[in-house]
Design brief:
single chain, 460 residues, alpha+beta, Glucose Permease (Domain IIA), Nuclear Transport Factor 2, Chain: A, 8-stranded antiparallel β-sheet, 5-stranded antiparallel β-sheet, 23 strands, globular, binds zinc ion
């Protein structure tokens, strides 16, 4: 096909499932064999080669439960102190009496109120008074009701969620119940952890006092530069400054890394968290370069490549040899497809053998990426729409010419498809020149902390 380069490659629908893929060794987009990950000795280790920048949310969500338990066990500040400090300072006097009761299975709100010493009629009045703010009858098993009595009257508290609390106050004179919804206080503290890798990353970071969530965050931040499955070595060191947030009962809410350093095989990487004037929060190097790249390594998470980029391939459906100008990611139907970079939708719709197809034109105008065979598009997708890096644009399927569910993905430079697995990705946008000074000012204290020797650091 000598005139091939003149054609619009979007007409090239040569695609499908490569045959025999189930027997192939699983390889990541960058060709890392999964058995190299063995030394991480963590349940998720085998995903690492695939994680790249995509690691994020799924894993974090998976570990929030466990991490919460750990952090709770290690909490050094007594929770009751916090709670009392936050519960209406005026209401807590030495004469106050605090009682609490938990909702058991088969229990109901009125029964719990009665265990707190409220009479039957009183309990119903309380539920009624609360109704406009919160339906006490829908309270779930395990939740706690609190009663505080003192000279000015009686108070009842129920934590609706991590951010809000229902407060019922009964005036000592009128005996009327007043309901209000109060903001719960969020407590935060800064911690510093540092250590040397011996054995696994998760083991080493745990010894340094870090919870798994924070370790995952650390991996995510540096995943653009360090392949933790392949490149990490015993003797590598890390230092992490992070902020943990808790609700007023000491339950961990979230943790975010403010600054981190990782020395991998003698090479030092540093990252600083910075909120830009436009509100975006990102991690940058101390001199303001983005830790991220402009493009994710792959548009589908936790998947495997079933067919690579090649200029000659026997087509599984059409039977004759044609080029395969993209990469196929085998994944179950319905798996989310992510835009690998920020840009605008240049095409959305049905395109010949590509089936349901989206073409994104990226910010530098020379690059575009193509996503084919989707089962459906994400809501709101339309031509001209702006998409962010990582945004879900559709779902894996087998529309068009395909023998099984997979995403056919192309990376085009000036309209011409190149191998997405070998193309060099440019860095994401650095700190804007206009806010350079602001960046330097805000990050200087954290950088200073990062530079201090570990022995000089007080544990938070
Ligand atoms: Zn394909």
């Amino acid at each position: 096909m000598p005139n091939r380069s003149k054609k619009d490659f979007s007409d090239d629908f040569s695609d499908g499932f490569s045959d025999g893929f189930p027997d192939k060794p699983l390889a990541s987009p960058d060709g890392v064999k999964k058995n190299k990950a063995a030394r991480l000795s963590f349940p998720s280790a085998r995903w690492y080669p695939l994680l790249g920048a995509l690691a994020g949310f799924m894993l974090i969500l998976l570990f929030i439960g466990g991490a919460g338990q750990d952090a709770r066990a290690r909490m050094s500040i007594p929770h009751e102190e916090w709670l009392q400090a936050d519960l209406h300072p005026s209401a807590i006097t030495p004469a106050s009496r605090i009682r609490s009761e938990r909702l058991h299975s088969g229990d109901n709100a009125v029964a719990v109120l009665q265990r707190l010493g409220f009479g039957n009629v009183e309990s119903h009045r309380m539920v009624l008074a609360a109704n406009a703010s919160y339906q006490l009858k829908s309270v779930r098993v395990g939740q706690v009701f609190k009663r505080v009595d003192n000279a000015t009257g009686t108070d009842f508290y129920y934590n609706m969620d991590a951010r809000e609390r229902l407060h019922l106050h009964q005036d000592a004179g009128t005996h009327d119940w007043q309901a209000s919804v109060e903001k719960r206080k969020i407590f935060s503290r800064q911690r510093i952890a540092s250590g040397t890798i011996t054995g696994s990353l998760f083991g080493s970071s745990e010894r340094a006092g870090m919870d798994q969530r924070t370790t995952m965050n650390l991996v995510n931040i540096f995943s653009w530069d360090i392949d933790f499955a392949r490149d990490m070595r015993s003797g590598d060191t890390f230092k992490v400054i992070y902020e943990e947030r808790f609700d007023d009962e000491g339950k961990p809410l979230e943790s975010s890394i403010l600054a981190a350093r990782f020395v991998n095989q003698g090479k030092q990487y540093q990252a600083i968290r910075y909120q830009q004037i436009n509100g975006d929060v990102n991690y940058f190097t101390p001199d303001g370069k983005s830790m991220r790249k402009a493009y994710l390594k792959a548009p589908v998470k936790f998947t495997r490549i079933s067919s690579r980029f090649t200029l000659r391939r026997k087509h599984p459906i059409l039977g004759y040899t044609r080029a395969h100008r993209g990469v196929d990611y085998a994944a179950p139907r319905g798996t989310p497809v992510h835009a690998i970079g920020e840009g605008y939708i240049a095409f959305k719709g049905w395109k010949h053998g590509y089936g349901r197809f989206i073409l994104i034109r990226h910010n530098n105008r020379q690059h575009s990426t193509a996503y084919a065979h989707m089962s459906r598009f994400a809501r709101g997708m339309k031509r001209g729409k702006h998409v962010r890096q990582g945004q879900v644009i559709g779902y894996v399927g087998m529309s068009g010419l395909a023998t099984g569910p997979h995403l056919h993905f192309e990376f085009r430079v000036r309209g011409r498809a190149v191998n997405p697995l070998t193309v060099k990705h440019p860095p994401a946008r650095p700190v804007a020149k206009a806010e350079r000074d602001r960046f330097m000012q805000q990050t200087a204290p954290l950088l200073g902390l990062l530079k201090q020797s570990s022995s000089a650091v007080n544990w938070g």
